[in-house]
Structures are given as structure tokens and as C-alpha cells.
Design brief:
This protein is of the alpha/beta class. The chain has a single domain (2-141), classed as Rossmann fold. It is 37% helix and 15% strand. Helix 1 (18-26) links the parallel strand 1 and strand 2 (40-47). The termini are far apart. It binds iron/sulfur cluster (SF4).
Length: 147
């Protein structure tokens, strides 16, 4: 049994997590790092607290107390307008401070966001394909399915 925590972007704090929980079940997007025969339990779900992300300092601790072995930064950080400028810093902080791996990405990138972001230079400059590789492995059909 793998236990994980999910931290979403504070701009979407009212999000019910529908896409994330569906993706976990389907093992797509950032959850493709887990095989379908491995049980995964979400032991914490929170948001960054809003820019500049003050919750990142403390909320991983609570998740770890519940047994979290990895933390996922939600896909909204990658595909929001604009994408979160602090993704790399959040990952480095959590991994350094809490000694727990951080996966960038939860649900697949919805195709409608992908097609818009692909036109923007900042997405390329931010190196999204390098920092969130799992999100670039989904098929076009899957991405359309998450629109
Ligand atoms: S853009 Fe980044 S820092 Fe701002 S609310 Fe979203 S995740 Fe938090």
C-alpha cells in the first residue's frame, strides 16, 4: 500500500478533486508512476494556501504524520494561467526539508489547456516537460477525455 498526499494550487482551492481522484483510479497523469496492481491511498489533500504558497512549509508534515510516502503537486500548478512560478522551489523545499519524493502532476493535462499552453513561450521556458514528465506521456484521447 502506497500512501500519498496531494497539494493543489490555492487559486483552485474550492476544487472538489474530481479529476485527481479519477486519475488516481485510472493510473494516468502523475499517477502513472504507480502500477495498477499497487494500492494507493490518499492520506492528505490540501492547497498551497494561495500565492506565495505558505502552506507548503507545513502541510507536508501533516501528510507525513498520516503516513504519506510521496507528495503530488497537482496538475493545476502546471496548467493554470499563468502556471505556478514556484513549482521547482516547492519540490526542492519539500524534498529537502521533509525527505519525501515530490511528483509534479496529478490528473492528465486536459487537451484544451495543452493546446493553449503549447502556444506560449513561458511554458517552454519553464521546462514543464522536464519537471513534469509523467504529464506528457498521456495519449491524446486521454487528454481529451479530461477536458
Ligand atoms: S500559483 Fe503557485 S503559489 Fe500561487 S496559489 Fe497557485 S500553487 Fe500557490
Amino acid at each position: 500500500m502506497k500512501k500519498i498526499g496531494i497539494i493543489i494550487c490555492g487559486r483552485y482551492q474550492t476544487c472538489g478533486g474530481g479529476k485527481c481522484f479519477r486519475a488516481l483510479k485510472e493510473r494516468v497523469g502523475g499517477f502513472s508512476v504507480y502500477s495498477s496492481d499497487e494500492d494507493v491511498e490518499v492520506v492528505g489533500y490540501s492547497n498551497c494556501g494561495g500565492c506565495p504558497g505558505g502552506n507548503i512549509e507545513y502541510v507536508p508534515e501533516e501528510m507525513i504524520k498520516n503516513g504519506a510516502q510521496a507528495i503530488h503537486l497537482a496538475t493545476g500548478l502546471v496548467v493554470g494561467y499563468p502556471p505556478c512560478p514556484r513549482i521547482k522551489a516547492f519540490k526542492e523545499f519539500i524534498e529537502t526539508r521533509y525527505k519525501i519524493p515530490v511528483v509534479i502532476g496529478t490528473h492528465p493535462i486536459p487537451m484544451k489547456y495543452f493546446t493553449e499552453h503549447e502556444k506560449m513561450s513561458f511554458w517552454e521556458k519553464a521546462g514543464m516537460k522536464e519537471i513534469a514528465p509523467e504529464l506528457f506521456k498521456d495519449t491524446e484521447n486521454t487528454m481529451k477525455d479530461y477536458n
